[in-house]
Write a structure and sequence with these properties.
Shape: globular
Structural class: alpha/beta
Mean pLDDT: 93
Largest sheet: 7 strands, mixed
Helix content: 10-25%
Strand order of the largest sheet: 2-3-5-6-7-8-9
Order of helices and strands: EEEEHEHEHEEE
Strand content: 15-25%
Number of strands: 9
Length: 151
Amino acid sequence: MLKYIPELTDIVMEEIPDRVTLAVEISNCRGNCPGCHSPFLRGDIGEELTPRIIDRLIEDNFGVNCFLFLGEGADRDALLRLAGHLKSSYPQIETALYTGRERVEEEFEEFFDYIKVGPYIEALGPLNSRSTNQRLYHHGEDISLRFWRKH
C-alpha cells in the first residue's frame, strides 16, 4: 500500500520543466537526508493512494499534464502499479518520481517519464544549484542543467 497526504497535494509549475504537474507527497520515506524539508514524511501517515483516488485527482485538476510522486514510499509494487495505472489510463499525462536514492532499477524507466535521483545534501544544494548531487532524467537523458541558474 502506498500512502499520500491529501492536504499537501498541489499543482506545481517548477518541479518538472514545461509541465503543469500534480505533485503528490508520499509517506513512509525510507530516506534520512540531513536537512530534509519534510521529515514527517518518514512516518506511516496519510491515506491510501488508489487508482480510484488517482482518477479523482486527475478529474479534479483539469489541465494537468504530469503526475509527480514525491517519494517512493515503502511498497515498490504498489508504486509501480499506480504508475502503470496512470500510463494506461492517461497516456496524455506524463509520470514523474522523486527519490532520494542514488539510482533506481531500470524497470522504473518503463513507468516514469521523469526520475529525479539523489539524496538531498544541504552542502551541495538542491537541483537548481550547479554543485548539487541530484539529477533529473527525462527518458534516461540528464536534464538537470535546465534548473541551474544562469549567472
